Amino acid sequence: LPLTDQLRYEIVPEDGDPFQEFLDGKLPTTGMDNDQFVKVMDGEALKAGKQGDDLLKQEYRDKGIHLRTYAEPTLHYISFNMNDDVFGTPAGKKGTALRKAVAMCVDRQDYVDRLLNGRGEPADQLVPPGILGRADDCRLTNQKHDPAAGRKLLMDAGFTVTEDDAGWTTRDAKGKQVTLEVCFRSQSGSTLEYGEWLEEAVASVGIKLKTAYLTFPEFLRRQDEGKGQAYDAGWVMDYPDAQNMLQLLYGPNKPPGINSASYGSEKYDELYEKMAVLREDVPEQAEAKRKLIIDMHKRIDEDTPWVLMEYRKIFTLYHEGFLQPPPNPFACNFTKYTRWDR
Q1: Ordered DSSP codes for 8-23
Q2: Distance between CA atoms of 82 and 94, rounded to whole angstroms?
Q3: What is this structure's pTM?
Q4: Residues pairing with 167 in the sheet
Q5: Mean pLDDT, residues 80-103
Q6: Which of 125, 157, 130, 129 is nearest to 144 (CA)?
Q7: Three-class DSSP category at 288
Q8: Helix (H) or strand (E) holding 194
Q9: Which letter, b or e, does each residue of 76-108 get, where b requires 16 or more Cβ atoms within 10 Å of its Cβ?
């Protein structure tokens, strides 16, 4: 070891087709977008719950193509700008009601099934599956799909919510329809599809969605400068500890730090600081840490600075003869242990 003496990375132009290059045997492995997923996966096998190579259409198995799947410790979410006058802290109880209503209008299972081809799991708390610190007591009650409950929250907060042939409309005290602009970090076809889906979801509680499809640098600039009402965000965990995810809402990490929501809660910060120094692998500390994580989720549930979306599941294809280590999302140096025998 290592198996590989030299790595060569090839940059494929934007008008190129790296997936086709994989199918032609020029690349050893590849991921898949939605269209590519449909092209190579066997729909009936997916419905039957089969695993591994049995999920691939026979024509691709005959070409010596294999499938690898694994859960990635990733959380996809939408973060509200808590400094916003309409959806943020300055709006008080009305802002909280709006954030909760948006969280309640999202059918996460539908999103995973329709837009991700089932490659994921609806998110119900900040800690992904398989990570220490995840618990049933951490499930966020305001992240369940219940548009009717969301509309009631808005009416109780003083908004006017009406329905006509065009659908639901939520108006503020001045009679103006409530709008929410979400900044997206991409202009790809899949992102546009996601934006349209989210627009339909938010409309179920009478809120009009505005979409800002940005380049990644522009997205980061707006997020860091706190320009915008909400951001389509995500986090891939760096190490398998709940603290790695919970730091994203820690007050001192506000922009230009990783707290993209600009969320600030003295109680949450106090709990975080106690939790962050405790270890799961030390028995006398583990239970105390779990209780703190549960209390932190209760605070998040009350404030709802995020709309949780999903935990991702990765599907990759590779050719016969491509040797690679078992999946380890927390390892960054495994490429030198791969080999491609063609």
Answers
A1: ---PPPTTS-HHHHHH
A2: 13
A3: 0.91
A4: 164
A5: 98
A6: 125
A7: helix
A8: helix 189-203
A9: bbbbbbbbbebbbbebeebbbbbbbbbbbbbbb
